[in-house]
TrEMBL record:
Transmembrane segments: none annotated. Residues 1-22 form the signal peptide. This is Alpha/beta hydrolase. Residues 153-399 form the Xaa-Pro dipeptidyl-peptidase-like domain. The lineage of its organism: Bacteria, Pseudomonadati, Bacteroidota, Cytophagia, Cytophagales. GO terms for molecular function: hydrolase activity. It holds the Pfam family Peptidase_S15. It comes from Hymenobacter jeongseonensis. It comes from the Bacteria. SUPFAM superfamilies: alpha/beta-Hydrolases. InterPro entries: AB_hydrolase_Est10, AB_hydrolase_fold, Xaa-Pro-like_dom. Keywords: Hydrolase, Signal.
Length: 465
């Protein structure tokens, strides 16, 4: 699931007085800049004349994208770059030596730490240690594969790992959270799905993980994508996996993280659905209520002031009501602009931050998230279910969501349900201090060994019956 803190921060930014950066002479930005977002290489071409118009264009070689025009603003030592389709932006600062632009890439409802380095520079960004990332040689078979979602007309690319022992084997498909993610669910240098797939395959379970539409080697696009669309990808992955030799066709499950759990649950109520479900930090509250509880959990990391918490809750509920009740995007945009910029500030930095957020709030994807009613879907799931969450998860707060999961599955009369709150873990299942998204990058651990064991043991128990 994306890191949604900026929706919470829009109001604070709108109400704050933003000091203007001092205008000083800066080295030219003209040149070719290189960086990586979620495992995908970006190439940025900048022209920065002493007088005249600055220009920027973006290439993404893996996606065969070239020359996407970008809007440029460079107040002081800051650099803002923005594209309108899909809506995305970079906000960062020049390094002291002028050879790097260090900041954050925001796309849709996700955010990534992002550093651009000038081509030819000897400055290299130091990557944080990620000791759990699997390294070859592997004690199992691994192959890059593709499969078709004929319903959507897309080809999805992934990695298929199979234990080295004699089969047949149980198997799972891994489903990433919302927004564009690669097969490893790469975030801040972590590859949690690579770690999970490695663990499960070493324990006798075949695993398929794949790039989302429009990511890596997969065709298609994320534009306008909903949970229903992702569900068809999950169905196609299940069908491909069941067709492989050496797989026990009646013991194939779906493992969904966050919004991937939503797609997994929807697939479970359809024909030829999974034989079991593993829901990792999967939302079970209604979509609009999830956003409110998420915002409150994030705010509680900074304050316990009841008045401020009440104001945040009121603002978030107002936002969701505007989006849900106002089908016309122009009308909804006007109301949201008033909500988040009540003084009608013309501050360029504020407006540069606000615009992509408004576009994201009014996207088909976000509207679909708010309209989601997991209780109705869970009430139709009758296969075995493991649902786990971390006690420090502030994106899908564990107590409220596990309670809603239990209620939905009880309504289905499902008697094979295991719910676990794992102490000390965040939304990514890392051992955390506070659970704040800001910690994700700093934590060395990618996936808690205790969580891996819970998942592996439960799948093994259910598939050996």
């Amino acid at each position: 699931m994306q890191i949604p803190t900026r929706f919470l921060l829009i109001a604070a930014a709108a109400l704050a007085t933003v000091a203007a950066h001092a205008q000083t002479t800066r080295p030219s930005l003209t040149g070719k800049w290189l960086g990586t977002v979620a495992g995908t290489d970006f190439i940025l071409h900048l022209t920065d004349p002493a007088t005249g118009t600055r220009t920027a264009a973006l290439d993404i070689p893996e996606q065969k994208v070239q020359g996407i025009p970008m809007q440029v603003a460079t107040p002081g030592d800051s650099v803002y770059l923005r594209i309108t389709q899909p809506v995305a932006q970079f906000a960062g600062r020049r390094s002291a030596d002028g050879h790097q632009l260090v900041g954050e890439w925001q796309q849709g409802m996700r955010a990534f730490a992002f550093t651009l380095t000038r081509e030819g520079s000897t400055t290299k960004p130091a990557g944080p240690p990620r000791p759990q990332t699997p390294q070859p040689p592997f004690p199992y078979q691994s192959a890059d594969i593709t499969f078709r979602n004929e319903k959507a007309g897309v080809t999805l690319a992934g990695t298929y790992t199979v234990p080295a022992d004699m089969g047949p084997f149980p198997a799972v498909v891994l489903l990433t959270g919302s927004g564009p993610e690669d097969r490893n669910s790469t975030v801040f240098g972590h590859q949690p799905f690579a770690v999970l797939a490695d663990y499960l395959t070493r324990h006798g379970i075949a695993v398929l993980r794949f790039d989302d539409r429009g990511v890596g080697q997969s065709s298609g696009s994320q534009a306008g994508m909903t949970s229903a669309d992702y569900t068809t990808d999950a169905q196609a992955a299940l069908a491909w996996l069941r067709a492989q030799p050496g797989i026990i066709k009646t013991k194939v499950g779906l493992v969904g993280h966050s919004q991937g759990g939503t797609a997994a649950t929807r697939a479970a109520m359809l024909p030829q659905g999974p034989d079991f479900l593993v829901l990792l930090a999967s939302p079970s509250l209604s979509g609009d209520e999830l956003i409110v509880q998420q915002s409150l959990a994030l705010t509680r990391l900074q304050t316990t002031d009841a008045t401020l918490l009440a104001a945040v809750e009121k603002q978030q509920r107002t936002m969701t009501q505007i989006v849900q009740k106002t089908a016309d995007n122009a009308q909804a945009r006007a109301q949201l602009s008033t909500l988040y910029n009540p003084t009608n500030s013309t501050n360029a930095q504020l407006l540069a931050q606000l615009e992509p957020q408004l576009a994201a709030l009014l996207s088909v994807t976000y509207r679909d998230l708010l309209a989601d009613r997991p209780a109705q879907t869970l009430a139709k799931v009758r296969c075995p279910v493991l649902a786990i969450g971390g006690s420090k998860d502030v994106q899908v707060p564990v107590k409220e969501n596990l309670a809603a999961t239990a209620a939905g599955l009880k309504a289905a009369g499902n008697r094979d349900v295991t719910l676990k709150e794992l102490p000390g873990l965040n939304h990514l299942f890392q051992t955390a201090t506070t659970g704040a998204p800001a910690e994700y990058k700093a934590i060395e651990e990618t996936f808690s060994p205790a969580a891996l064991q819970v998942i592996g043991d439960w799948i093994t128990q259910r598939t050996q019956k």
